């Protein structure tokens, strides 16, 4: 799934936005969604949020303020009539990832191994890190070869090691590659379904005012300062694949909500910040559950400047909650989506999923269509559905049953539909009785 939300839902948002966006604005948004680039996830959030607010009174998009800035949205609260102006922005770890190209190293190892008939899963990679800078500017940087050191490392150290290990097949062999620039440990192992690697977190927030969230808030504060007096200035801060936007990890001394509240205390350009992200909630039994995780913070100075502002804040909360109730269950988390947005257009639907009960089976419609289209073989279908000894269709025929009914269930909350198939005994395939 290339996005956090299903493509069907995103298209519904785009269809609704045609009535409030100009042709050029709509075309630009669609182009950003179709282009495989880091901006793709941000375009998704923009489409979803604008669609969620467009039903509010006097909604407009990118209409200039007196200072010439064009905020993403302006509208009036439905009950109080208070004007609202705001922007939508996504926060990512693009900067830290550029400085710590661990994914590039993994691609290099996979590419070298593939040329020799292997793959990345045969190598476990561990990378060390170092603290860089004084206390105020301290950051964690992975010890990886960069620039001219990278090509020399690949040619003279990594490639010979991989070739030698694949030839010797000495599983468990471990080697450390160390220099002033890098410190990498590679272990050779049998092929598996999973790629394994580890490194210290370089995206943990070490300073409350030096991190991707603070930077995003700072860049948008000036955008909203030109709003007329009496206007509520809101920033919608969305997760574009940023670790700091999720729950604080053990290595992060500062969390998302602390950053937002401290920014609102210090800065004057924003009155309210709403954060939108997705998280995987652990369940006592079974797999984790993917859910929306939205929170909001209000500037205390704004809240106390007018006795009626508490009621205004409560009205905003109602608008946000109504918007949230219409958003479907997330199809992916932000970490996966930001990667898929660079490489994928369409997902594989609910491939491999099914339910069986008595003489009925429910399977994803696209799975059946892919088999009928010859895109995947029956053998692949059986394997990926966990049917090594034949599928339900084959067993039905063997038992003298044919398809007696088929019902399609349209599921707009995801990017696949389900077909319920009922099998019944058929005299055409059974002995007379």
- Roughly what fraction of the amino acids lie in strands? 15-25%
For the termini, the CA-CA separation is 51 Å
Helix content: 25-40%
Strand count, sense and barrel status of the largest sheet are: 5 strands, mixed
Tally of separate helices? 14
Oligomer: single chain
Uncertain stretches of 5 or more adjacent residues: none
Q: Round the mean pLDDT to the nearest integer and report it.
A: 87
The tally of strands reads 15
SSE arrangement, N to C: HHHEEHHEEEHEEEHEHEEHHHEEHHHEE
Strand order of the largest sheet: 1-2-9-10-11
Question: How is the secondary structure organized here?
Answer:
Blueprint: H1 7-17, H2 23-34, H3 40-53, E1 73-76, E2 83-91, H4 94-99, H5 102-115, E3 123-127, E4 129-132, E5 139-142, H6 148-168, E6 174-178, E7 183-188, E8 197-198, H7 212-224, E9 232-239, H8 256-266, E10 272-281, E11 289-298, H9 300-305, H10 309-326, H11 334-343, E12 355-357, E13 360-364, H12 365-372, H13 378-384, H14 392-398, E14 401-409, E15 418-425
């Amino acid at each position: 799934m290339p996005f956090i939300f299903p493509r069907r839902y995103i298209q519904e948002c785009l269809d609704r936005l045609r009535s409030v966006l100009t042709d050029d604005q709509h075309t630009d948004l669609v182009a950003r969604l179709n282009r495989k680039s880091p901006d793709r996830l941000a375009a998704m959030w923009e489409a979803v949020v604008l669609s969620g607010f467009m039903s509010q009174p006097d909604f407009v998009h990118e209409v200039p303020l007196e200072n010439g800035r064009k905020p993403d949205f302006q509208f009036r609260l439905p009950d109080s009539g208070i004007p609202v102006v705001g922007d939508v922005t996504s926060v990512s770890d693009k900067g830290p990832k550029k400085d710590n190209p661990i994914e590039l190293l993994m691609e290099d190892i996979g590419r070298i191994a593939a040329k020799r008939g292997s793959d990345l899963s045969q190598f476990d990679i561990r990378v060390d890190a170092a603290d860089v800078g004084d206390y105020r500017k301290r950051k964690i940087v992975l010890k990886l070869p960069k620039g001219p050191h990278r090509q020399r490392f690949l040619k003279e150290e990594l490639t010979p090691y991989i070739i030698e290990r694949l030839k010797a097949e000495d599983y468990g062999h471990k080697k450390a590659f160390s220099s002033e620039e890098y410190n990498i440990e590679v272990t050779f192992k049998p092929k598996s379904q999973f790629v394994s690697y580890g490194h210290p977190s370089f995206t943990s927030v070490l300073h409350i005012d030096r991190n991707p969230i603070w930077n995003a808030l700072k860049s948008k504060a000036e955008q909203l300062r030109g709003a007329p007096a009496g206007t509520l200035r809101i920033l919608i801060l969305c997760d574009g694949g940023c670790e700091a936007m999720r729950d604080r990890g053990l290595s992060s001394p500062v969390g998302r909500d602390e950053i937002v509240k401290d920014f609102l205390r210090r800065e004057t350009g924003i009155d309210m910040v709403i954060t939108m992200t997705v998280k995987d909630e652990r369940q006592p039994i079974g797999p984790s559950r993917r859910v929306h995780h939205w929170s909001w913070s209000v500037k205390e100075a704004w809240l106390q400047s007018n006795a009626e502002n508490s009621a205004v804040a409560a009205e905003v909360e109602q608008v946000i909650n109504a918007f949230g109730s219409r958003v479907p269950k997330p199809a992916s988390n932000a970490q996966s989506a930001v990667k898929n947005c660079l490489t994928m257009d369409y997902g594989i639907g609910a491939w491999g999923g099914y339910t069986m009960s008595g003489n009925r089976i429910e399977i994803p419609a696209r799975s059946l269509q892919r088999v009928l289209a010859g895109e995947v073989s029956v053998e692949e279908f059986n394997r990926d559905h966990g049917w090594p000894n034949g599928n339900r269709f084959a067993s039905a025929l063997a038992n003298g049953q044919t398809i007696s009914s088929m019902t399609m269930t349209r599921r707009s909350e995801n990017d696949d539909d389900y077909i319920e198939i009922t099998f019944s005994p058929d005299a055409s395939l059974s002995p007379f009785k």
